[in-house]
Fold:
Amino acid sequence: MTGLEGSAGLSAAERGTVMKKALVSGASRGIGRACAEALSADGFRVVVNYRENREKAGELARRIGGEAIGADVSDPTAVKRMFDAAGDIDALVCNAGIALQKLFTDTSYEEWRRIFAVNVDGAYNLIRAALPHMIHEKRGRIVIVSSVWGVRGASCEVAYSASKAALTGLTRALAKELGPSGITVNCVAPGVIDTDMNAALDTEALAELADETPLCRLGTPEEVAEVVSFLCSEKAGFVTGQIIGVDGGFGM
Structure:
């Protein structure tokens, strides 16, 4: 699935300046949407990636002066087409992900593979596509969105926890490999955030999770986006290989 919405055709002169470009995967809602908004406010021209929700992605892209491009991040061919359309990317936020709440013994191999295809292979496909430009320029920012469950694990979310834990290992190893090229790689591990993904939990479960959080509340997508925005900025030039919990203390 591919699509293009927004003002991608503007020349540098029409935009008044050459802007750095960021791509945020899974940006039509939740944390990804907040990240796209924050990066736009920081002066990035943002590519809003989506898989299904073209209408919401297009609306966001028009509002922030970016462009919306549809691609399933688990499909390397679709990711290549997206980068061909988007052009060179200076900051990449690997946010697209799916969850699964199920006993491990009830999790089928197909479900296990789909979780890893989106959450882990998706990050691989995006980073591989972004790196040629970053390596050539000897600079770049990569931010990977994991989860507190990737740090501490969650019963009945083994596949999800395992996939998010893989992203923390990817972050640390890739930061060492890309450091000599001037590229930083960091990871944010959100706690319980008030998003559509957690909307499936009932009120009692959400209240219990808030009680387990030292700050006694759920986080917001905007609070995660502020950290992502910092990691993509020049201010974070000496920060790499870090797993930063944005969880109100939940992961302690």
Remarks:
- The chain has one domain: 13-246.
- The radius of gyration is 17 Å.
